[in-house]
Task: inverse folding
């Protein structure tokens, strides 16, 4: 790693003030950023650690019945504490990385990074969640802008993520056997006004909605409703683990499994 | 350089660190606690697992500065106060839960974290919990047996 200073503010206001320096960067749980620094793929002059800020941690329910998760909340906490409110989201969090990684990695860090194979973006997009930052609120449909790219501006911190609770939901991850990241992951969420289907791991552009499947499933929430549909392989990732056509096939299979699991 | 203070195995300790000093470097190079191992240095293998405020973390993927004021437990803090092996450590010895021993500190720390949350895990739960701990001797069956035994359960495991 290149040398840098590290600061550990105790409040959100101090964190926003501390980021002012050139080449400064926020540090969430560090489970992606620290390996990146070790490979010298990033060279910040200063890291502002968010791990000491109590106001960014924890879950609460708001007046609209949404489960609201602080940006600095670890995957392990979400797995434990969201289970009673939004079981599919808790189950997703319970299968990110491994137990030690889940004790450090945070939802805000995952969303700010927007890895094209990360799990959380699929839940956020399928749930039409709201990303609250230190400056504003951003709808999920406006937040994800492509691989490792989001609507966040420099110096902006994900403070909370607000998930409307669906009538039924499920996440299916087909893990890449070595990294255990999603080779393809599908999150299906059924709300009173329709079904949303978000796909991670598959696209060169990061997480996306499969609108044809959403239309079919909104009419009939049954795996049979998408039997004839094929996801478009154009723009999907092709690498040593799978071709675009293979990933497109997995999207259909996993969507069907997610619907069956959610409906059952 | 900044002085970072924390409680390691019950004792308050301080060492000079850079911003980039990892917790595992602080423990091994700053305090001389070399029981915590660095295997992969990429947060895959789990040889560096320690407990920070009671939770298992990979000490190669956390900065020392982030453990300021925290209570840290390493493998050196696992034996009983009289120096005899803890139940988990003794079970690893009794069931040959180690071959070369390199992964063992992390395995013991992960096992302790698991049994704290789930005192009587199933074999499947033990195996799932060890997803982030790699034994390159592939001695998993005896590691799982040792953890089952440490939880006071039957150690019969079909595959040998």
Result:
């Amino acid at each position: 790693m290149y040398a840098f200073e590290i600061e550990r503010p105790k409040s959100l206001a101090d964190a926003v003030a501390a980021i002012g320096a050139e080449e400064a960067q926020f540090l969430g749980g560090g489970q992606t950023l620290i390996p990146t620094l070790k490979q010298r793929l990033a060279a910040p002059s200063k890291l502002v650690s968010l791990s000491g800020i109590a106001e960014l941690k924890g879950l609460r329910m708001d007046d609209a019945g949404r489960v609201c998760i602080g940006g600095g909340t670890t995957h392990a906490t979400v797995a434990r504490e969201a289970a009673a409110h939004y079981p599919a989201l808790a189950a997703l969090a319970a299968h990110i990385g491994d137990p030690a990684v889940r004790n450090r990695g945070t939802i805000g860090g995952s969303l700010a990074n927007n890895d094209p194979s990360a799990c959380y973006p699929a839940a956020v997009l399928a749930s039409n969640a709201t990303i609250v930052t230190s400056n504003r609120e951003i709808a999920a449909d406006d937040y994800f802008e492509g691989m490792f790219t989001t609507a966040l501006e420099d110096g902006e911190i994900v403070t909370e993520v607000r998930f409307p609770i669906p009538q039924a939901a499920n996440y299916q991850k087909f893990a890449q056997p070595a990294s255990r990241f999603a080779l393809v992951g599908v999150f299906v969420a059924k709300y009173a006004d329709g079904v949303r289907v978000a796909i991670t791991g598959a696209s060169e552009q990061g997480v996306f909605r499969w609108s044809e499947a959403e239309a079919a499933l909104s009419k009939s929430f049954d795996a049979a409703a998408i039997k004839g549909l094929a996801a478009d392989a154009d723009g999907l990732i092709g690498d040593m683990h799978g071709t675009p056509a293979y990933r497109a096939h997995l999207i259909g299979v996993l969507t069907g499994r997610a619907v069956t699991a959610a409906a059952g | 350089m900044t002085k970072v203070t924390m409680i390691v195995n019950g004792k308050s300790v301080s060492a000079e660190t850079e911003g980039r000093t990892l917790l595992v470097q602080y423990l091994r190079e700053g305090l001389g606690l070399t029981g915590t191992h660095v295997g992969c240095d990429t947060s895959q293998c789990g040889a560096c697992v320690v407990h920070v405020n009671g939770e298992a973390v990979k000490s190669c993927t956390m900065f020392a500065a982030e453990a300021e004021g925290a209570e840290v437990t390493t493998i050196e803090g696992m034996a009983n106060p009289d120096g005899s092996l803890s139940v988990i450590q003794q079970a690893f010895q009794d069931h040959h839960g180690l071959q070369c021993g390199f992964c063992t500190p992390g395995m013991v720390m992960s096992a302790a974290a698991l049994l704290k949350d789930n005192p009587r895990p199933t074999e499947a739960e033990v195996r799932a919990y060890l997803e982030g701990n790699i034994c390159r001797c592939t001695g998993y069956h005896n590691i799982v047996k040792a953890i089952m035994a440490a939880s006071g359960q039957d150690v019969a495991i079909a595959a040998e």
